[in-house]
Amino acid sequence: MRNRGNDDDNDVRRFQMREKLFAIGDDYWIEDDQGNRAFRVNGKALRARSTFKLEDPSGQEVASIQERKLSVRDKVAIERDGRSVATIHKALVGIRDRFAIDLEDGADLKVKGNVVDHEYEIERDGDRVAQISKAWFRVRDTYGVEVEPGEDVGLVLAVTVALESMTED
Fold first, then answer.
1. Closest to 132 (Cα-Cα) out of 41, 158, 123, 122
2. pTM to 2 decimal places
3. How far apart are CA 122 and CA 77, in angstroms?
4. What is the full DSSP assignment across the chain?
5. CA-CA distance, 62 to 80, in Å (whole number)?
6. Which of 9, 94, 112, 124 is such that its CA lies 20 to 30 A from the CA of 100?
């Protein structure tokens, strides 16, 4: 399941996302660096929590991103096929937002940098898994997600959507 949503293990994959663009009930497309629609974020409103579905272009669900409101600190769960694959926690300490990503299978991930300004990296054991930056695109309110070769593109994009939802005002 490591490369789910990734059809090329040898090249860095780059995607374009628009910041602060979604609200529950809204849908939008994540485009690749060629401007092709690569994934759709489907915003759904449920009674007790916010949910986003990450889908491939054919409409197949890649991941479900669900806010958990009944915890002491902000938490978002990412599921695939009804099974939890990751949980993102917002740290309780410090002025800046800090996040940890607990994976069910594999080494946990850390977020380093400024999530609110879309200038951060996702790391595993000190190695970069993905880089998120506004510097790659001149389009206003747009940022890029660059996923390292061999990484799970669907999971990285689901984490990025979750972080965006956790940092909205």
1. 122
2. 0.83
3. 17
4. -TTTT-S-SSS-EEEEEETT---TT-EEEEEETTS-EEEEEEEEE-SSSEEEEEE-TTS-EEEEEEEE-SSSS-EEEEEETTEEEEEEEE-SSSSS--EEEEESSS--EEEEEETTTTEEEEEETTEEEEEEESTT--STTEEEEEE-TTS-HHHHHHHHHHHHHHH--
5. 7
6. 9
Question: Tens of pLDDT along 122-151?
Answer: 999 999 999 999 887 666 778 999 999 999
Of the candidate ranges 8-17, 100-109, 152-161, the one whose mean pLDDT is the lowest: 8-17
**Dist CA 158 CA 51 (whole Å):** 11
Its sign, for the CA torsion 166, 30, 52, 50, is positive
CB 120 within 8 A of CB 128: no
How many CB atoms are closer than 10 A to CB 80? Answer: 20
pLDDT digits (tens, 9 = 90+) for 54-86: 999 999 999 999 887 655 567 899 999 999 999
Q: How far is CA 32 from CA 16, 55, 60, in A?
A: 6, 14, 18
Positive or negative, the Cα torsion across 67, 73, 77, 83?
negative
